[in-house]
Amino acid sequence: MDVNGKIYKDFLSRIERFKVQNGPDKNKKQHLKGKLHARERIALLFDKNSFEELDAFVTSATPDTGFGKIDEAFGDGVVIGHGRVNGRLVYVYSQDFTVMGGSLGAVHARKIMKVQELALRVGAPIIGLIDSGGARIQEGVASLAGYTSIFHNNIRSSGVIPQISVILGPAAGGAVYSPALTDFVFMTKKTSYMFLTGPDVVKEVLNEVVTFDELGGAETHARKSGVANFIYEDEENTILGVKKLLSFFPSNNLENPPYIEPSSKKEKDVDKLRLIVPDDPNKPYDVKKVIELIIDQDSFFEASELFAPNIVTGFARLNGKAIGIVANQPKILAGVIDINSSNKAARFVRFCDAFNIPLLVLEDVPGFLPGLNQEHNGIIKHGAKLLFAFSEATVPKITVILRKAYGGAFCVMNSKNIGGDYNFAWPTAEIAVMGPEGAVSILYRKEIQSTEDPKKLKMEFAAKYRHEVANPYIADEKGYIDEVIDPADTRKKLIIAFETLENKHVDQPERKHGNIPL
Q1: Choosing from 222, 327, 409, 475, which is the catalytic residue?
Q2: Tell me, what's the pLDDT at 103?
Q3: In 3-state terms, the chain is what percent helix, strand and coil (to 5)?
Q4: Which among 102, 169, 173, 335 is annotated as catalytic?
């Protein structure tokens, strides 16, 4: 008998069993739920024929626990490996809901930990494609220990390699903490949800009836909690979004973001920038129109668009180079800073700083949102997070004051005295302790109250204050900003300014870490 022939036959037989296990029936089960199979997701994510699977043939460590037999399928419910996304190395784990609901046991966890550690070791991004019923109940504490080790690896990798979580089904209980620890979270409408305690528990404990979507669906986390940064209608578009996001990132914290040649050589109609800010200082406008006229054509990729929309965060390209943008949005709540916008922007700034992505700040902010609710819920502490984030960041940071820059909000939005490298202002800028109307109400209270026409006198005093105190030329002459610029020159000025900052270096005090006001 040909021994070698038998060995090879056994080898082929094992591969055949693997193929049968992952046959078309598994795909159909997912398709009926409006979802893709774990391997279909991987095929969409990676460049063609670039994916290399690891640990494909492992099986559960404890097939029979006495509390129900565990599926001994190859892979133990998760596919791991590495491949190329637009030519760049990326690691992945993709949970397979068709194997025990994608539940996490000891072996399943070890596979995820393995790919996490490899990604960290070689300095490559890692993506988690999550579709899991949670901890495998039959394996008890082994499942909990597995989750804990995954969380620990998330934290070790934070700020070293980009980590992205893509929720493509359920993520419940402890399973939600790994996504929460990663840099960005994607969700799909109607088929993905995240929560710590499900609808049944909510009903039992609080006697409240809620649906899965109401409690933890994509819309809920994109609009209300801010847990989801991006949501899409289906999985195909979600994965395309992940690939686009990756294009702005370096592979690790020691590299710079990749340069991409601008797709359009057509000159922008930058003269339109002179017309966007209204003559009436209290009239709203859309700051995204400013962004689009400054950046490379069609390069803006907004993050957390639906959450705290009074501040805009996102990635873009300026002359082919990746930047992060933080902009007050005057058309929503007049662009004020509140608790949610502070948290949203602070986390975005810290990500950009960790991965060497320069920051552009477009400022039009009348102040912090007043009120009992904001004060009692800690706007002081939360606003300080944004202040801390900008001040701590050492990447190139440039601010352009478009219109209002009042009080503490002026200080927080990357002012020169917290480390802004270049601070420009448009002629429409108003820089002051507070708005003219509020200022004169304090400074000229007696005069206004004693006149026959207080409204008219207040308007006259406000105009005088705006002209003599709040106008940007005073800040320019005193050195608190670098230059008042023609709005039409903004793109050109920013390209030159960021080029001068390419070799920026900041010496930091020796310390373990700062204590951000969490």
Answers
A1: 409
A2: 86
A3: 45, 20, 40
A4: 173
